[in-house]
């Protein structure tokens, strides 16, 4: 019976304005939803005889989740430095001089298989005239520690399937959820991957800038991200889809689930975040009413997507 009701809803949407909206969305997809699968150099540093390069998708830092590949090369021997302790920290400075960071992997480990130091950064804002980003990188080579910094540009993420959100949980902690994949979903059941991070409030006084204890973030462990995807536009009636799976943490530290997109267009991922004990830290249940002509109600915690 539930499946039959869903078919009736889908047919109603198709009979009404769904066809026109879908055509418009398909035109938008072709020009505004890019896919990037090639890592290119986004920035490089030089200190003495050493060069540090950081590769990112499309050679660009974007607001949201960024997988990063760092390399340290001895320019005299052209050999990679593989045994160094490498640290990575992004800092943003606002017009009033205040400084903050974003979820990132501070101690990046060497990946011997792929021959780079693997890390990530979830940039929480774009570079603007009133907010600038700088990377602070350190490494050790030949028993000497090198510390380098360089200004970078963080660009707008034009792919809404890689959106992110930041919020304060019911426990008073600051959290961040960033979509990692898919970049470009299909009308089907899609594997949905997201990172969930928390700001670690400092417990000691600040030392010499940039003191990592003042800009520390961590991946949250053992949480559950309950998922209820809806099409909130009035013409869609806020209908959902079957066979979705809540997001749970896997061995890579990221949260994996399934989102079933039954047609192209605007979708809202309504979320409820629960901690290890099942306590709700953010999010509300979305009404199940089919509401054609009325914009759908969203959860207190949500991320919009479009494909």
Automatic annotation (TrEMBL):
Residues 230-251 are annotated as: Disordered. Residues 237-251 have a biased composition (Polar residues). It comes from the Bacteria. This is FixH family protein. It comes from Flavobacterium potami.
